[in-house]
Amino acid sequence: MVASDTDTDSGPVVSTTQLVTFLQRVQHTALRSYPKKQIPDPKSYIDLSLKRPYNLSTIESAFNDLTSESRHDQSVPVEKLEKFVKEYFDGAGEDLLHHEPVDFFSDPSGFLSNVENEQVREWAREVHGLWRNLSCRVSDSVRESPGRHTLLLLPEPVIIPGSRFREVYYWDSYWVIKGLMTSQMFTTAKGLVTNLMSLVETYGYALNGARAYYTNRSQPPLLSSMVYEIYNVTKDEELVKKAIPVLLKEYKFWNSGKHKVVIRDANGHDHVLSRYYAMWNMPRPESSVFDEESASGFSTMLKKQRFHRDIATAAESGCDFSTRWMRDPPNFTTMATTSVVPVDLNVFLLKMELDIAFMMKISGDKNGSGRFLKASKAREKAFKAVFWNEKAGQWLDYWLSSNGDEPETWKAENQNTNVFASNFAPIWINSFNSDEVLVKKVVKALKNSGLIAPAGILTSLTNSGQQWDSPNGWAPQQEMIVTGLARSSSKEAKEMAEDIARRWIKSSYLVYKKSGTIHEKLKVTELGEYGGGGEYMPQTGFGWSNGVILAFLEEFGWPSHLNIEP
C-alpha cells in the first residue's frame, strides 16, 4: 500500500513544554536572521530561561510584535533580535551555578601511585582538577519556577560534560564516575547516581539529558554499571538497596513496547533483544532547523515523521550521527536507526541483567538474582544466534526486515558487515572476555580490522563527515574495548589493551598541551589532534574524556622511563 500525503506516523510521542515550543520559534527566527557564518548554536536558544517578572504570554506577545514586520524570509534585523533576547531572557546556562565539590582534594592520598613519570603525574593532577570546573548545581530559581526553564530540577550537584552541554547527560555519567572513583570523589559520584535515579522515578527511564526537550528519549542504559562501580569501591549497600527498584523500572522500559524485538533463529528459538526507539517524530528542539533542512527532500508527512523519529533515535543511541544507522551510507537521508538491533545496546542490557543479579544477591533476594541470571544467559545465547559472525570474528548489528513489532526470522544477509568499534563492545562483558577461544578470535579480528589507529580505536572505517565515524575515536569505546581485553587471560589481548590505552593517553596529553583543554573526541588517525565533524563545533571540558584518562592511568600506570612527548 502506497503512503498518502495525509498518512502519519502512529508511534509513541511524548509531548514537550510550551516554553520549549516557543523557544523553537525564537531559534528559527535567529537562524534565518544571522549571516550564515555568524549563526549561533541553535541549542543556545532552547537553553534560555524566562527573565523575571515577565511571563511566557507577555514574551510571546512581544515576539509576535517583533516578527510581525519580518522580511519575506522570516528574518528580523539582528540587533532587534539581540535586544529582544537580552530584555526577556536569562542567558543559556545562567540557571546552572558553580558548585564546589565537598570531596575534592587537589592531591588525594595515594592518587595514581603507579604513575611514576612526574610529567604525566603533573598532567593527571591537572585533569583531576577539571572536576571542579565541571561541577554545578541547579539554581533555586528552577525549584521555585520550573516552568520558566528548560533545565530540569535535580536533587544533587552534577558534573556536566562541558561547553555547549550545560546539563547532566545519561551515558556520559558512567565514564565520569569511572574517573571520580580514581579521584576518590565518592560523594559526587553517588550524587550523580541519585540524580539519574530521580529521573527514572519521575519518567520511567533516565532521560538523554536533564532538559525538558530530552523527555522523549533515553540514552545507553548504564545506570546499573554506575551503581556497580561505586559499590565496588565503597561497599555502599544502602545505595544498592535504593537502586534495585529503580533499575527494575528502567529494565522494563528497555525490554517492552517498541524497544523490544524478537528474532527467531533457524531452529525456531525466539531471542528477545532490544533496540533504540525515541518517542518523538518531529525535528529535535535543540537542532530543529538542522533536522528540517535534512528532511526537506521527503515528499510526504509520513516519510518526514519517520525520518525525524530515526534522527531522534540515533540521538538516543548516544552515537549521533554515524553511518551505522544509514541504510545507504553515507547518505544522511537513509537514516533508519529504529530498524537496527544494535550490538552495544544489548551489551549494556546484558550488563544490567548481570548487575541486577549481583545486587539482588548481596541484598538477600536469591530468587530475584536467579531470575536475572537466567535472563542474562538467554541474552548471551541471542548474541551468538543473532550478532556473532564466525567468519568476521566479531559481533554485527542486525537490520530488521519489518517494523519490529512482530517476531521475525533471522537472515544472514541482515547482519551489517561494515566494521565499527561497537562490533567489539561485547568483549567488555566478563562471560565473553573469559572465553579464551573467543578472545583469540576477537583479538585477531580487531588487529586486522583497520580500526586500530595511531591514537586509538577508530569509530568506523568510513569518513562520512559525521562525528561517530572515521577519523574520530571516542573515550567510551576505547574504555570498553580496552577494559575487556585487559580482563582476559590472554597475554596478546592484555598487551593490545595496554598499547591502545597508551596511544589514547599520549594523544590526549598532546592535545591538552597544544590547546589547554581536554576534548570531547580525538582524531585518532594522527597523534595529538582533536576530532571534528557532525552538527556542532568541537567541544571541550570534557567529562567522559577526563574520566577515561584517569581510569586508564590507574589501570596501566606510566613508568618513569616512558616518554609521553613524541
UniProtKB/TrEMBL annotation:
Top-tier EC class: hydrolase
Protein source organism: Arabidopsis arenosa (Sand rock-cress)
Lineage: Eukaryota, Viridiplantae, Streptophyta, Embryophyta, Tracheophyta
Protein name (Swiss-Prot/TrEMBL): Trehalase
Entry's Gene Ontology molecular function annotations: alpha,alpha-trehalase activity
Gene3D superfamilies for this protein: 1.50.10.10
The reaction(s) this protein catalyses: alpha,alpha-trehalose + H2O = alpha-D-glucose + beta-D-glucose
Entry's EC annotation: 3.2.1.28
Residues passing through the membrane, by range: none
Keyword Iron in annotation: no
Entry keywords, A to Z: Glycosidase, Hydrolase
This protein's record includes keyword Iron-sulfur: no
Family membership: Belongs to the glycosyl hydrolase 37 family.
Family annotation (PANTHER family): TREHALASE
SUPFAM superfamilies xref list: Six-hairpin glycosidases
